[in-house]
Amino acid sequence: MSKQKIPLKTKLIAILLPMGIGLTFALFVKYKVLLPVSISNGYMEPSFKQGETKYFTKWFRKDNLGIGDVVIAVSPSDPNSYVMARIIGKPGDSISIQKRFVFRNGTILDPALFPEPSTQTIPLIPQGKTEHDDMKEVTVPEKSFFLLADNREIGVDSRTLGPIKESQIFAVLW
């Protein structure tokens, strides 16, 4: 029985073609589906610690976004800045904050949805009180969301930026 010699070209195709397909798929997922985000500030503490990397997906349906989802949106005040926060209000919802409790349509949202920071980092505010304890009722306009950072003392969110348009949301936590 004689061995049949396989041409080098066939060997290269058998090795390089699957590797090329795998590399193309991996790059597609990395750059088009998943978005690795290094947490650069404490706005979402204690949920996300500064320096951690979280993965967000750019492939989502805006009508599937729900209360509690963490999203990244382009800031309405600066198109070169981004906001990472939790959705607490959908179009038509009325949102208010009283004594650190968040109300959506008159019903208190589960406080476990928004973990409290373990330490108070702003010494000028009395213990148990923050500058953002109360917020008057706001109705979320159509095609918009109300976002709230977990660390309300330093977070930038819809309390200062107003409701975020759905077209400005470009990624959701995977």
Search tags:
17% helix, 174 residues, 7-stranded antiparallel sheet, 11 strands, 4-stranded antiparallel sheet, alpha+beta
| Mean of pLDDT | 86
**Shape assignment:** elongated
Strand order of the largest sheet: 1-2-11-3-4-9-10
N-to-C span: 56 Å
Radius of gyration based on Cα positions: 23 Å
Question: Strand percentage, roughly?
Answer: 25-35%
Q: How much helical structure, as a percent, in the residues?
A: 10-25%
What is the compact description of this entry?
With 174 residues, the chain is an alpha+beta fold. Helices cover 17% and strands 29% of the residues. It is elongated, with a radius of gyration of 23 Å.
Any overview of this molecule?
- There is one protein chain.
- This protein is an alpha+beta fold and 174 residues long.
- Helix content is 17%, strand content 29%.
- The chain has two helices and eleven strands.
- The strands form two sheets. Strands 1-2-11-3-4-9-10 form a seven-stranded antiparallel beta sheet. Strands 7-6-5-8 form a four-stranded antiparallel beta sheet, with no helix packed on it.
- Strand 5 and strand 6 form a beta hairpin.
Which SSEs are present, and which pair or pack?
Elements: H1 8-33, E1 34-38, E2 53-57, E3 70-74, E4 82-89, E5 94-98, E6 101-104, E7 107-108, E8 135-139, E9 144-148, H2 158-161, E10 164-165, E11 169-173
Antiparallel strand pairs: 1-2, 2-11, 3-4, 3-11, 4-9, 5-6, 5-8, 6-7, 9-10
